[in-house]
Design brief:
alpha/beta, 4 strands, elongated, about 40% helix
Length: about 170
């Protein structure tokens, strides 16, 4: 459930009551239910304030487009995610360097409630480098150096090392 995700007029709705009513209905059917909420950069505090502890997890859908200090989940537990290729658009979206390094900055920050890293693809046939970064980060305990990642990606994707290709990939990455 993600109310008002794409906007809309909610000025005549008691939002806290609305959220709590939905949450209680979820728990009525599944007592352990957790509301997974999409966050696009402006989390709605009424959502986090209306939930009991352990009742909500936010997935940040634009985490790799932000500085680590700019991600605000209003104190709720959250996952570092991103949606970059809206409807399969073939332009490079997201920031590869931030996607590679920032999840670990959040993990090092004792005030962050980050739970993990996830992928939220709208198109997996676009942006192979970004999705490779997310997959790589899911099992690491420390960030990979960018140049090491680029070389690893080059070999995994294209089968061998090539300096011209490496230089081209660096331009995409940085």
């Amino acid at each position: 459930v993600d109310p008002f995700h794409e906007g809309g007029d909610c000025s005549k709705i008691d939002l806290k009551s609305f959220v709590l009513g939905n949450f209680n209905k979820m728990r009525e059917h599944c007592p352990e239910a957790v509301w997974v909420l999409q966050e696009w950069g402006e989390p709605k505090s009424y959502l986090a304030e209306s939930m009991p502890d352990g009742g909500m997890v936010m997935v940040s859908l634009s985490a790799d487009n932000k500085d680590p200090d700019a991600v605000d989940t209003t104190g709720a537990p959250w996952c570092y995610c991103s949606v970059n290729y809206f409807g399969g658009q073939y332009s490079f979206r997201g920031d590869a360097q931030l996607a590679l390094l920032n999840p670990f900055k959040h993990l090092e920050n004792n005030t962050s409630n980050i739970l993990g890293i996830g992928m939220m693809p709208e198109a997996v046939n676009c942006g192979e480098m970004i999705y490779s970064i997310y997959a790589e980060n899911t099992y690491r305990i420390a960030p990979m150096e960018p140049d090491v990642f680029i070389r690893k990606y080059m070999i995994e994707r294209y089968g061998s090392e090539n300096e011209r290709l490496y230089e081209a990939l660096k331009k995409v990455f940085y």
